[in-house]
Amino acid sequence: MSQQNSAVLMHQRDNGISEIVLNRPDKRNAFDDVIIQQLINAFEYVHRDPETQIVILRSEGKHFSAGADLGWMRRMAENTRQENLDDSRELARLMNTINHLSKPVIGLVQGAAFGGAVGLAACCDIVLATQSASFCLSEVKLGLIPAAISPYVVRAIGERQARRYFLSAEVFSAREAQQFGLVHMVCDDEQALQARCNELLQQMVNNGPEAMKAAKDLVFAVSHKPITADLIDDTAQRIADIRVGAEGQEGLSAFLNKRKASWIPETQ
Fold it and tell me: Mean pLDDT over all residues of the chain?
């Protein structure tokens, strides 16, 4: 996957940052079953990689991704129901892998993000987009539905907006995506997108890696849950565990002694 002619590239940057890159600019980074498997492999690799602390998902070329590749859709139309089920489960597996990755995932979106690409963005923890980026849940135009991506998109934009855009297949802008909660930051252009991403990375590499993982787990643990005695006790146990853990002890010691924590890069 490291070869430049691959549809999915991986780059290792400094300070524990890994990039996973869609590399089919001539096809507007549309994906098929092979690319889905390559993306799963890439995300599973960074999940296991002890050197990787933060992951960037981005694309080469003018567009983030046009969604499903036309050739792939033709093949699926000719497949049996079981073959379609197996295929859809792999797309669902990719979304779940990104969504629950043990490292923070930053998505960078430029140009078009259509169909399944909206799901990719919804599964990232933080999403930055250029002002000219556009989004579309286009499946109903083809007589289909955005099923595999729906749990993540509905959580990102809410049921009310999902009911509109799942049904209408309208294109919506980066600013609208920000209003809905799909996008966190809108940047003037790709240069500003990269600059804002670098600023964010400089902020995040100062954070405890295990703390970021635990914080992401915490969001999943409390989201959409009633505030019960069990939930309150669970949150108390989580903070107690991390306070007495090695990283928590190091972080508190560094703060109290006015020094840098051990995980902060020397250049910071």
Answer: 95
Beta strands 134-136 and 112-114: pairing type? parallel
DSSP 118: H
Q: What is the mean pLDDT of residues 178-190?
A: 98
CA angle 137, 143, 145 (to 5 degrees): 45
243 class by beta-carbon count within 10 Å (0-12 exposed, 13-18 middle, 19+ buried): exposed
DSSP 8: E
CA distances from 192 to 20, 120, 197 (A): 20, 21, 8
- CA within 13 Å, CB half, 258: 0
- Cα–Cα dist 268/260, whole Å: 9
β-strands 134-136, 171-173: how paired?
antiparallel
The full DSSP string for 184-245 is SEEESSHHHHHHHHHHHHHHHTTS-HHHHHHHHHHHHHHTT----HHHHHHHHHHHHHHHHS
- Do 92 and 56 form a contact (C-beta atoms < 8 A)? no
Collapse the DSSP code of 126 into the 3-class scheme (helix H, G, I; strand E, B; otherwise coil) and give the result.
strand
Nearest to 66 by CA among 6, 133, 164, 166: 133
Per the CB < 8 A criterion, the answer to whether 18 and 56 are in contact is: yes
d(CA 7, CA 72): 15
114/260 Cα distance (integer angstroms): 43
Model pTM score: 0.94
Read off φ and ψ for residue 105, nearest 5 degrees.
-120, 125
Which two tokens mark 153? 């998109």
- Residue 2 has a pLDDT of 47
